[in-house]
Design goal:
mainly alpha; Arc Repressor Mutant, subunit A; two-stranded antiparallel sheet; 3 helices; 6% strand
Length: 72
Amino acid sequence: MISADLITINPDILGGTPVFKGTRVPVKTLFDYVENNYTLDEFLECFPSVTREMARRVLERSEAALLLPASA
C-alpha cells in the first residue's frame, strides 16, 4: 500500500498523475528509470526534488504490496 505521505494525486497537478508529494515528478518515472537499468542515484540526480528517502520508501512499499499473499 502506498500512503498519502509519499504520493499526491491531484487533478490540478499533471492531470491527476500520481506524483511524489511536494513535487511534480511522476512516481512512474522512478519505475521507468529502474526498468531501463538506471541507478537510484541517477534518478535522484535528474530529479533533485525527490529525496532518497521518498524514493526508497516508494520502492519498499511497492515491493511489499507485490509480495503480499493473495487473498483467499
